[in-house]
Write a structure and sequence with these properties.
It is built from 11 helices and 10 strands. By secondary structure, the protein is of the alpha/beta class. The protein has 2 domains: 114 residues, Rossmann fold; 114 residues, Alpha-Beta Complex (UDP-galactose 4-epimerase, domain 1). The strands form 3 sheets. Strands 2-1-3-4-5-8 form a 6-stranded parallel β-sheet, with helices on both faces. The longest helix has 14 residues. Bound molecules: NADP nicotinamide-adenine-dinucleotide phosphate.
Length: 268
């Protein structure tokens, strides 16, 4: 009964790996470090062979062009290798990601899809860490409300889906407990840090330039920018109940995340 974290020990994968290992579930990781590459299908069979369940985390984003073809091939391979369940990390309100979800299910393996709001940890473990440190968040988006979700809640939900007695062919939307505009989120982070952090809407080139200051290459920043222009239009301005349904508890707030994160010193 081995579980596979497909897509590596990244932000979500490492959290899930730690939880499963602590629970005593035999678990292995697959990413370029172990010889598995999303861009080379010949590396896939060895990664999935011998496992019963897989968490699927595609990088950089399920919504990008060409990814549905990969998900379709993976779904068929998972069925051929006898996997009993898949858990897919997806995003809320992303049309392209919908196509990838459908494609993965094509092989017929029961698949739990976790459609997540923006991760709170984007501000501290990803592309917004530098802008928060500099006190100036600039995004190619309007100041829309978002229901920022804690990656620890996402990891708990993925572990529940991977280990519950019967696999589920179901889709859950995961959000945090409250809707906050980016200006409100910046104010909460500023309060936790004890120094100003502001939000302003910007254009795509400025956003790409900001990310370049932190070493994010343009080929990664540009598609992200266009994805944000697309999805940060208010379409996800609603709360979802996936955390409550899967875990039987309330999701963690941005304020709680910001306090913990400021304490860790990552924004100092
Ligand atoms: N950020 C958000 O707010 C948000 C919200 C909703 C959904 N999502 C979704 O979350 C997913 C990203 O999750 P994450 O942040 O947990 O991942 P992550 O931290 O970006 O990284 C996952 C891992 O992917 C591996 N990787 C990169 N390129 C690879 C390749 N070509 N082949 C195989 N492995 C590769 C890397 O390991 P190696 O270096 O060892 O290969 C890395 O450890 C995306 O699909 C995104 O759409 C994000």
């Amino acid at each position: 009964m081995t579980s596979l974290i497909l897509g590596g020990a990244g932000r979500s994968g490492s959290r899930i790996f730690d939880r499963l290992t602590t629970m005593g579930v035999p678990t292995r990781l697959a990413s370029r470090k172990t010889g598995f590459d999303w861009d080379d299908r010949e590396t896939w069979p060895a990664a999935v062979r011998g496992v019963t369940a897989a968490y699927v985390c595609f990088t950089p984003d399920l919504a990008f062009p060409g990814v549905p073809d990969k998900m379709r091939a993976l779904g068929l391979l998972a069925a051929a290798e006898g996997l009993e369940r898949l858990v897919l990390l997806s995003g809320r309100g992303e049309e392209g990601a919908r196509a990838s979800e459908d494609a993965l299910r094509h092989g017929g393996v029961p698949t739990t899809v976790l459609r997540c709001s923006w991760f709170q940890q984007n501000f501290s473990e990803h592309f917004l860490t530098g802008p928060v440190r500099r006190g100036r968040l600039r995004l190619p988006a309007l100041d829309v409300p978002e229901a920022f979700v804690d990656l620890d809640d996402v990891a708990d939900a993925a572990v529940a889906a991977l280990t519950q007695p019967a696999p589920q062919n179901a889709t859950y939307e995961l959000s945090g407990p409250e809707l906050l505009t980016f200006t409100q989120a910046a104010a909460i982070i500023a309060d936790a840090c004890g120094r100003p952090v502001t939000f302003e809407s910007t254009d795509v080139p400025t956003f790409v330039e900001d990310l370049a200051a932190d070493g994010v290459p343009a080929e990664e920043a540009e598609p992200l920018a266009y994805l944000f222009t697309d999805i940060l239009d208010g379409r996800n301005a609603s709360l979802a109940d996936g955390v409550q349904t899967l875990l039987g508890r309330q999701p963690s707030s941005l304020r709680s995340y910001a306090a913990r994160t400021a304490e860790s010193g990552v924004w100092s």
